[in-house]
Sequence to fold (322 residues):
Amino acid sequence: MRIVQRVFVKGRGVVLENMKAFVASVESESFSQAARRLRLSANVVSHRIQMLEKHLGCRLFNRTTRRMSLTEQGRVYYEAITEALRLIDAAESNVSELGALPRGALRVTAPLHLGRRLVAQVAARYQEAHPQIDVRLRLSEHTLDLVAESIDVALRLATFEDSSMIMRKVAQVDRILCAAPAYLDRAGVPARPQDLLTHHCLLLRFASLRELRWMLTDDGRDLAVPVTGHLEADDGDVLTVWALEGRGIVVKPRFEVADALAAGRLVPVLETHPPRPATLAVLYPARQLVPLKVKAFADMLVDEGRRYIAHELGKIGEGVPA
Fold:
């Protein structure tokens, strides 16, 4: 906090803005991306970095025509000021929200299915109730780094081993193997996990995954099954469409395919060896001061998320696991 105190004691508010431009440049890995994030021009961001370097008396970036990288001084400076700036932003946000309408940007991420069917509606209602807030929603099946991507709130469906984030549980989510009756009539019904090796499995895969294994359970123990298939995508909704068309077996959260299960268009497979359950949770970075706009949105998302899961599972006569 000494750095921040020095900024305010000397009355150099411009230095604080330069520090914000520096942090945005580091996290965006380019001045142009930082400029878009700060809603400034690239020339302004570049000028602010130059002013900061002059103020500190050292270079913060190594620059070439193709890329830029932090100097050792820049790395040390970034680590020193990042948390201080977050505390300042949170403090300013909380003070302003106590006396006026919440304002500023709220960056939210969610997986595609839940983002389209749940988070998009929550975000729109939240913004309507808080007209000074700009909600920026990023939908992706990829797990984004909340700190590096400057994300305020995330909705995730995962098996959380450990997290440095604040995690607020929405529900425990059962996952199932399922397929269309037409596929099972044609390919046969697998009787044991090893039978999946000869079936067409519909795969949720990303570029970083070299090998895909489905984690099933066998009498309470984990069982990793190395599956293969001719169809793969990085969008879970695409896999659902393929499964409904009878193209193979898929792993899905039960609530996501509740309509199809209720109508008999998909049927469970290997119910004695289900995939490991996952936790649906709202996450946000752990800070000493959590902005009120973040907490208010998280509250709304947790409540609406529980209602949404209960509604979907109700289609097949199930409740929401605690």
Observations:
- The mean pLDDT is 85.
- The two ends are 41 Å apart (CA to CA).
- The chain has ten helices and 14 strands.
